[in-house]
Specification:
single chain, alpha+beta, Aspartate Aminotransferase, domain 2, Aspartate Aminotransferase, domain 1, 4-stranded antiparallel beta sheet, 10 helices, 10 strands, 38% helix, globular
């Protein structure tokens, strides 16, 4: 695992380790918010069973080299699980090219409803793994003493699925395809460059997460001011940011900070929005200084 993970890609593995006695090892990040690939390579060995990491950091925007990390893990026989929640809305993802064993995504990160997502898995693994839930639709034959299970993907889809959520997600995906992932990515990268320039021009502002390969996230703090205070004032000005640890406490501990102020850029964000953020931030700093 890595120091860059969302809690949802940390806590389940900690629970599993407590249950099985497995040992967890973590790849650290540097001051830019980039994974130390030398340490990653040194941690891999024949005892490594599973490698779990995110495609893009939700807190810093760091884009990880998924294909290279996957190849290195496979070289020692490890299974690769990738948290792709932040990558799917911002770029084209080809799971076959990446060669990952499992890849997870979330609808609400892709302009869709909450409460629904996806788990991609290679057929060989999905056929090997037992169902994690029992119920209707996931069975082939049921007798009083035993049951047999349905084929993929039904084996893992017990009960009535979130039908409305999936339909809503389908509408969101259709819109994304109409706009074009390439167009969305280009728009967001242009905004990231502009927003970075605008924020760094404000005295006292420090941006966390300056990886060479980065998605459209601006995570920052103001020197001497708690991020919650800045966020509260921005909220009163009608400027929506998130403040806190962003479910990534290990990252915040690494930087020795209580949290950050995060502006997440998307297809609907404009340069005018970033100008409003910069103006609002200047006002907030003046009030809090």
């Amino acid at each position: 695992m890595t120091q860059l993970e969302h809690h949802s890609n940390l806590v389940p593995w900690q629970m599993l380790a407590q249950h099985t006695g497995a040992t967890l090892r973590y790849v650290p990040i540097d001051g830019r918010g980039v994974l130390d690939q030398a340490v990653y390579q040194s941690l891999l060995n024949e005892r490594t069973k599973l490698v779990a990491f995110n495609h893009i950091s939700n807190a810093l925007g760091t884009i990880n080299p998924v294909k290279a990390m996957t190849a290195a893990a496979h070289a020692v026989g490890a299974v690769v699980v990738v948290d792709g929640a932040q990558a799917l809305p911002h770029s084209h993802v080809d799971v076959q090219d990446l060669d990952v064993d499992f890849y997870a995504g979330s609808a609400h990160k892709m302009y869709g409803p909450t409460g629904v997502g996806l788990l991609y898995g290679k057929t060989a693994w999905l056929e090997t793994l037992p169902p994690y839930q029992g119920g209707g639709e996931m069975i082939s034959e049921v007798a009083m003493d035993q049951s047999s299970y349905a084929g993929l993907p039904h084996k893992f889809e017990a009960g009535t699925p979130n039908i409305a959520g999936v339909i809503g997600w389908g509408a969101a995906l259709s819109w994304m395809q109409q706009v074009g992932l390439e167009a969305i990515e280009a728009h967001e990268q242009a905004l990231l460059a502009y927003g970075t320039e605008r924020l760094l021009a404000i005295p006292g502002v420090k941006i966390y997460g300056v990886a060479p390969e980065k998605a459209a996230v601006l995570s920052f703090n103001v020197a001497g001011v708690h991020p919650y205070d800045v966020g509260t004032l921005l909220d009163q000005m009608g400027i929506a940011v998130r403040t806190g640890q962003h479910c990534t406490q290990p990252i915040m501990d690494c930087f020795g900070i209580p949290g950050t102020i995060r502006a997440s850029l998307a297809a609907y964000t404009s340069r005018e929005d970033l100008d409003a953020l910069a103006r609002g931030l200047e006002k907030a700093i003046a009030l809090l200084a």
